[in-house]
Amino acid sequence: MKGVATMDNKTKVEKFSAALVDKLFVDETEEEQEIIAYGLTVVCTTIGSFLAIIFLSGLVGITPLAITAAVSASIVKLFSGGVHAANFRTCATISAIIFTTIGWFSYHADSLIIIENNLLLGLVFLSGTYILYLYAPADVEEKPLDSVKKKSKAKIHSILIFSCLNLVFLILSLNQVASSYILAGLLGMLWTLFSTTPVAYKLFNRQYIRRCD
Description:
Blueprint: H1 12-24, H2 30-59, H3 63-80, H4 88-108, H5 113-116, H6 119-135, H7 148-174, H8 179-195, H9 198-203
C-alpha cells in the first residue's frame, strides 16, 4: 500500500490491518486497499473497545447498561461520524471509562422523574436533531467525505437513524421497560452527538474538518 503513511507512522492496529490487506487483497487497487485497511482498523478498534468496556463495567456489575450505551452510540456514529482518539489504546481506555460511567449513572438514576415523564426523551430528540443538522457528518482526517452529495446523504441517514432509536426508546418507555436502559441508551447517543462538535475535536486535539455546504 504505497500511498498510505509509512509503517513507522502507523499504530500497531493500522500496521496489522495494512499487512493483512496486502496479503489478502493483492488484486485490488491502491485506493481500494486503503479503504479496506481503514475499515479493518475501525472494526479491530471497535472490538477492542467493546472488550475493554465489558471488562471495566463487569468490575462494577453494570455491563448490560454499559453495552446498551455503547451500542446506541455506535449505531448513530456509523452515519454521523465524529472525533476518534489518536490511537487504539486511548480509544479503548476512553470508551471503557465513558460507557462504564454512563452505565453506573444510569443504574443509580433510573428513578428520576424526568425519565418517567419522558422529558429527557424529548430534550434529547430535539437537541440531537439540531446538533446533527449542524455538524453531521463529522469527518476524520483518515477518511474525509469528499463530496457534498455524500455528506448530505450521511446527514439525512444520521438524523433518520437517530430518530428511529428515539422512537424505540419511547416505545420501551411507554411499555414501562426498565428506565435505566433507556437512560443508558440516550446518554450513549448524547456522547456521540457531542463527538461531532468542534469542541470535541479540540478536546481530543484532532483537526476539525468543516463540512461542505
